[in-house]
Amino acid sequence: MGLQIAKIRLMPRYNSPFEIHVHGEVPLRADVGFEQLQEALKPLWKYAGAKSLVDGAASSYEEEPGIRLDAQAHLLQLCWTVSGDEDFRQALDEMCMALNDLAESGAPIEVTFYDADFDDEDEEMDNAGDARDDFAMYFVGPTPAAIMQVQRDLLVQDTISLMERHFDASELSDVVAAVDKLFERRFTSLVDSMQLGRPPRGQGGSSGGSGHGGGRKPRHLH
């Protein structure tokens, strides 16, 4: 049985330009306790106006699980929405840096900024402008190598998925090898610059998704 942290649903911020959805699963070290996790996630629950992780773990949407800890599987589960602005990115950077120290292995975290003033139905009726949605992938992990491994795996998966529309999977081995060389070069650069003392910042930059002005990225359904 997992331990559900979410207890109290917070009131949304008014006049916030975005609804921000954070989604992912982070494997945690077996020795990580609740207090450590609460401190690591403080940038999120504090941004939401809560006084603790218990108070801030509920999502703005009842159908979303919010922030959950599966204590038996040592797994942090995130499916959490908060109202906010661009300054939320700073909270994400701080959270990722803290989670690096608790993570057992590398993991991606998807973050989607939904334009709070945009309505799909109104857009169809009134031919309004495009939504200001944005999407980014953040990465956490105990070492730079662990973070790069999950980045590499996602890139290979996305590349193969795209190219299989035109080529057979057996023809793509050279493409995968090229991706591996790029990441080997990046890792070597990190080693040479002696940046291995601490994992890199959490954000891996925008990767895929709608970006500004594109079709809306669908919400996760549970």
Taking all residues together, what is the mean pLDDT? 81
Parts with pLDDT < 50 across at least 5 consecutive residues: 6-11, 123-127, 196-214
What percentage of amino acids are in beta strands?
15-25%
**What gap, in angstroms, lies between the N and C termini?**
18 Å
Kindly report the spatial arrangement of strands forming the biggest sheet: 1-3-4-2-5-6
List the domain count as a whole number. 2
What does this structure look like?
By secondary structure, this protein is an alpha+beta fold. It folds into 2 domains: 1-142 and 199-216, no CATH class; 143-198, no CATH class. It contains 7 helices and 6 strands; from the N terminus they run ββαααββαβαβαα. The protein has helices at 34-40, 42-47, 53-56, 88-100, 120-126, 144-163, 173-192, and strands at 3-4, 18-27, 66-70, 75-84, 107-115, 134-140. A 6-stranded antiparallel β-sheet has the order 1-3-4-2-5-6. α6 runs antiparallel to α7 (173-192). The longest helix has 20 residues, at 144-163. It is globular. The protein starts with a strand and ends in a 30-residue tail after the last helix. Residues 6-11, 123-127 and 196-214 have low confidence and may be disordered.
